[in-house]
Amino acid sequence: MTARELSVLRAQREELSNQLQSVDGRRNKLLSQLRQLGVTGDETARRGLEDRLALLDKRELQLESDLAETGQKLSSVPAGLFASTSAGALAGGLGSGQVVAISIVSIIFVLGPLAMGFARTIWKRSSRPALPPAAFTETAQRLERLEGAVDSIALEIERISEGQRFVTKLLSEGQASPLLAAGQRSPETVRSGQ
User: Fold this and answer.
1) Are residues 81 and 95 in the same domain?
2) Of 5, 64, 70, 187, most Cβ neighbours within 10 A?
3) What is the C-alpha separation between 191 and 15, in angstroms, rounded?
4) How many structural domains does the chain have?
5) pLDDT tens column, 2-31
6) pLDDT for 93-130, tens place per residue?
7) Domain stops at, among 86, 119, 147
8) Residues near 45 by beta carbon (within 8 Å), at least 6 away in sequence
């Protein structure tokens, strides 16, 4: 018998077991309906329920015999074939149960604290008091004063640059500078002797 045949037998046994449970459940429901009819119930309904019970009993016996036959076939399988069909080791020689256990532990001890820290951060941000409106008005006033100061500095720098342009223009022309004081004479009048 091959491993495939063995897996087919196991699936067949599982299906037969499920069908047997289903038939048993339906039979129990029919029995309870028959008891509810009692002695004074409708005779036609009683016969119909009894016929259905007899049919379910036959089906149950058939399923029981099929299940026993499948069980015998499974018990005749050599032990080495059972061992070869078991689930092999997954990554690193670990079984599926061990992989599940490691996954659960890592989720609890790694992702759990990360989620708690993230939740705590959100909670702290939401519980932090909001800035009062006075702080916004004070900030606006400070910005206005700063803007005024920057404007006056820009004006002064413009004056300084205008003065530098004037001095540069005078030096580049090479002309004699005009007399600044009333009592001074020009260099030409000094040479002529007047």
Assistant:
1) no
2) 70
3) 134
4) 3
5) 778 888 888 899 998 999 899 999 999 988
6) 677 788 888 889 888 988 889 999 999 999 888 887 77
7) 86
8) 37
The amino acid at residue 164 is Q
Are residues 71 and 139 both part of a single domain?
no
* One-letter amino acid of 128: R
pTM greater than 0.70 = no
Assess whether 107 and 123 both reside in one domain: yes
Domain that holds residue 151: 132-173
Q: How far apart are CA 80 and CA 8, in angstroms?
A: 17
CA–CA distance from 35 to each of 25, 41, 57, 136 (Å)? 16, 9, 17, 82
Residue 85, C-beta contacts closer than 8 angstroms, at least 6 positions apart: 3, 6, 7
With vertex at residue 105, the alpha carbon angle to CA 100 and CA 109, rounded to the nearest 5 degrees, is 155
